[in-house]
Amino acid sequence: MSIFEYNGSALVAMVGKNxxxxxxxxxxxxxxxxxxxxxxxxxxxxxxxxxxxSGLATxxxxxxxxxxxxxxxxxxxxERDMKPETFASLVSALLYEKRFGPYFCQPVIAGLSDxxxxxxxxxxxxxxxxxxxxxxxxxxxGDSLYGACEAMFKPDMExxxxxxxxxxxxxASVDRDCLSGWGGHIYIVTPTEVKECTLKGRMD
Amino acid sequence: MECVFGLVGNxxxxxxxxxxxxxxxxxxxxxxxxxxxxxxxKLVAASGEPGDRVQxxxxxxxxxxxxxxxxxxxxxxxxxxxxxxGELATALRKNPYQVNVLMAGYDKEIGPSLYYIDYIATLHxxxxxxxxxxxxxxxxxxxxxxHSGMTVEEAIDLVDKCILEIRSRLVVAPPNFVIKIVDxxxxxxYAWRESVKPDAA
Lengths: 204, 201
Prior knowledge:
Chain A: This is Proteasome subunit beta. The structure holds 2 protein chains of 2 kinds. By secondary structure, chain A is an alpha+beta fold. Chain A has helices at 57-78, 84-97, 142-152, 159-174; strands at 10-15, 20-25, 28-30, 33-36, 42-46, 49-55, 105-112, 118-123, 129-132, 135-139, 184-189, 194-199. In chain A, 31% of the residues lie in helices and 32% in strands. Chain A starts with 9 loop residues before the first strand and ends in a 5-residue tail after the last strand. Chain B has helices at residues 50-71, 77-92, 135-145, 152-169; strands at 4-8, 12-18, 21-23, 26-29, 35-39, 42-48, 99-107, 111-117, 123-126, 128-131, 177-183, 186-193. Chain B is globular, with a radius of gyration of 16 Å. At the A-B interface, strand 4 and helix 1 of A face helix 2, strand 9 and helix 3 of B.
């Protein structure tokens, strides 16, 4: 089993009309055994920027701590929050630093730019950025997520429709992957508010 | 074949560990205490490579004590767990410790808590957790019988059910177990469950 599949994960972010949504599964496993069903994979960097970290849980936790540290320093120096594009470059740089001994993570970054335009991107484990205009996926259920999102995605969805679409795509995909699932966590972010919901799917 | 498991009740946390020190096919001793009292209100149950287990848990214990000496107040359970994870994570890509840790503690404002810390430094706060081959049986028993707000008696009953499962279903089951509890009155040994009386040495 690959080291990326040790803990199991599913992450997806999708763009809507002046909003975005980012969702993850909730399972923390050790290969075939499930340890917890309430694992937090998506973290808030600031009110308009979220990062989800899939892959090896220990590296996801270390990377999150390093990123929070860097962002807090940035906030102290610049007296403002980091733009999503800047943050994506920071993530990419941190990952490439460990090019020959990498973090076994695949991050998904989602944020709202200054002009309220949604921004999503993913990188591989050594920091190769992949910007997308519609959706990005990561984790053991990644292949299924690509299919489900491609089928269900429509451009310029309102937050309510985006929430429905992303929830259905996530739950359908994790049901085909034994290493991810046990419900879902979804954040819908608009310029005015952040809504956080827990999804109940097949609890297996 | 090492078995470590634990659970959290309404105002206490219990951890249980087997007490066999094994080297290949030989049982060196069967009264080895694998649950260290970290400070007055914390317990660390550790399983894994024997040398690493003792060295690492003692290192954590001494650093937790140092913090209390320097700052005049004890660490919270969450802080101690995060410190432990940090040490494991730092060592992971140099000289990894092969130790799995279940850290149980009681904090005055927060109440009891249990932290699952993998040998590769995965940290998660849990209601019930287990390591080793025994985890297959313990987690299943606890999933079936555990509910939040159990009394100490109900929890010890569940612990005994888990031990019975391990003894009857695990091929090289450890014969003896130690149970330790932490609550508002502190961390202490609760009981031993012996099916083979160990020698006096």
